């Protein structure tokens, strides 16, 4: 153990001691809690004797501790509950600390580890969220517990689905496709004119930086309350990042590549398709990724300004008003899932298409 | 000089930069006959690359005449007369070796069924058989350079312009490729312009050696190579080889003494 | 020489931008007449007035609630609400901009500090890196702005209202790009530099202050530019659900309730001016700092 880990271990054991002394007389009512408090306390011995000292032990202990703590929270949390929670959490951290500092791990396990750790961390956040909201009786208006949110989620799948279709499929996706597609076409069209590129690039950059969502009330006046106005907002929001990135990407190719095609007397279209578009692909994908988040944001925010009685943004603003925070969180969960899923899909396609880009290369045999 | 394929007369090429004008070529006159193998040698910055680029119509001369096959370089380029091997390999990272070599063939509209045979042939020539599926970034620098040579050979250009193609290679591979190139040149009767910094390479390969000097870039000597056309590698130890090398070295020295 | 660069700048930058801007305005005016004409013609017919095209052009550009206001209408509205009204008045655009700007800047400042702290702990602690970094990256793909109304409500439940809740939305939005950019920056020194520090047997703290931190500055500025833009968006969106009393977001919302298009547009233009100014200032600071540090752009 290094110094930092020793400090963690000492604090963890002290917390366990605290838990023990306040729950000692109730030990027989809840032997499981008693035992893990005891183990957590005894862990401090490892500072002096190098026994059971690898991260795996701490990891398993943390998981078992979490489970037992979780079971015990629903009827008012017993004495010494919170210090024990801190102790178990410190054991979890200690596990990750120890394993990251482990030098000799087989590559397979290292890979597994780097997938497991974030999941472990996420599980801890959810667990802490659940236990704290339930254990401390936090009112739902402030923060509903994950279990309440998931019950609400399952109960209102129909509503959530309708909102998803309205906001994502109709507004965001349509707008995204039109916005990115038209920006791409415009970029190709102005590609031949240096004058237009020089004029449009700074303007596009500027517009990308201003809060375009504010255009939403105007679009609602022009295109009505339904999804068309939201799609219009998304079109405008996604257009400029795509334009700027495509134009920039098309102008990055280097001298040799250009000269090479010139010696072949290749036509403009040939060099566009064979060289400049592939070279611009990383830029274009970058814009596609930025825009995937922007599109969803635009569609949701635009609904705050007025919408039919369906849609993620509509539901969020209405349920917030009614203080149904569990429904709000369920909608946010939908938005988060959809957001990361679409990002994931685009990243996947990007990896397939721009596999050659230095940031994606896997096999270097030099 | 009737069958001169490339002929330059009092060629000047000036680069106008923000603070200074660089005279890259000054009064360069040179005739290259069909089927010749001409080496350009000279210190760094003397305009070798620039001259090659002017021939390929990648740079525009400021004054003077330059014609290729009786046409302007521009027209010759449009007729796809050049195979150019650049100082850096310049392969596309998103195309594998096969598709890099087939790139000019696709552009020039070769028939689909012709392409595989051609690619296979030129890859064999540069010893890259078996690497078709690899991507450029998976190969060593020398292999990349060989692939770029294969690419220049794949379509049947009359004129090969090679700018230090073997600069990045080790001695053994270089010898091998020198031999191969010589063989290729003899069998195809191509005209080759070849830039190098190595005197032995220039003497071994060429029928004519052009010695250049910098600031302003100009030709200070044109040496006709008297070696026989049949050149085994061992010829580099012969007296004649050494005496030609001597002349080239003297030319280079006299160029330097101007400074 | 300097005259030359000026002419070059004029030719390569100013002229193209100017012509595009002029084109945009021309199209805008045409659309103003086109979009507002049907309402205008209705009005003519109701009042049984004979009209010619020139009347139509004139009147479509002076409607009170046009579908699309002409640029000069927006400018004159802005002139009125900026210069002709006391800044303390609820109608002053300066007042509203100030409200939005202050929560933007407060949120941005907290977000930047938080982001830097997070980045430093990620770079210096492997466990933090392994567990936090994937979530930070994933969180960027989530439309976080959607929870803005909720944050406002929750904080109101705690008795917090006014500036801070809005600022916290900006904080939340700005600290992710800062953290990600800063992590990249702190990791940007090449191995050879780190090895060099290693040969000096310098402490971790020294490596941090003398190598990592200086090399992260360009990255920090780059992500600050992204962060300030998104902070502004956060502040505006944060003003939407509060019942809309003050701020540019409130102007947008009341404008959309009452169909006051000119007001909406002037709030929008003001937001654009704010964004442009903030980024310009950041650019300026970053230029000077980087120049002083000897970083080449
Ligand atoms: N695009 C350009 N703009 C301005 N000056 C240039 C340009 N290209 C080349 N030069 C200048 O022209 C001169 C000749 O350059 P060139 O590339 O032909 O040299 P070289 O003989 O090929 O040198 P090396 O052996 O190093 O490749 C140099 O002084 C160089 O600085
Ligand atoms: Mg050169």
Offer a quick outline of the entry.
The complex is a heterotrimer of chains A (366), B (259) and C (297). By secondary structure, chain B is of the alpha/beta class.
Structure description:
The complex is a heterotrimer of chains A (366), B (259) and C (297). Chain A has helices at 3-23, 31-42, 55-73, 81-101, 107-135, 146-155, 157-190, 194-209, 216-223, 227-250, 255-263, 268-304, 312-321, 325-353. Chain A has 366 residues and is mainly alpha-helical. Chain A has two domains: 3-138; 152-360, MetI-like fold (Orthogonal Bundle), CATH 1.10.3720.10. Chain A starts with a helix and ends in a 13-residue tail after the last helix. In chain A, 45% of the residues are buried. With 259 residues, chain B is an alpha/beta fold. Chain B folds into two domains: 4-81 and 157-254, P-loop containing nucleotide triphosphate hydrolases (Rossmann fold, 3-Layer(aba) Sandwich), CATH 3.40.50; 88-156, no CATH class. Chain B is 36% helix and 25% strand. Chain B is built from eight helices and nine strands. In chain B, the strands form two sheets. A six-stranded mixed β-sheet of chain B has the order 5-6-7-3-8-9, with helices on both faces. In chain B, a hairpin with a 4-residue loop joins strand 8 and strand 9 (218-224). The longest helix of chain B is centred in the last third of the chain and has 19 residues, at 239-257. Chain C is mainly alpha-helical and 297 residues long. Chain C folds into two domains: 3-68; 93-293, MetI-like (MetI-like fold, Orthogonal Bundle), CATH 1.10.3720.10. In chain C, helix 7 (163-186) packs antiparallel against helix 9. The model of chain C has no long low-confidence stretch (mean pLDDT 84). The interface between A and B is medium-sized, with 26 and 29 residues. The structure holds adenosine-5'-triphosphate (ATP) and magnesium ion. Magnesium ion is lined by residues 48-49, 87, 163 of chain B.
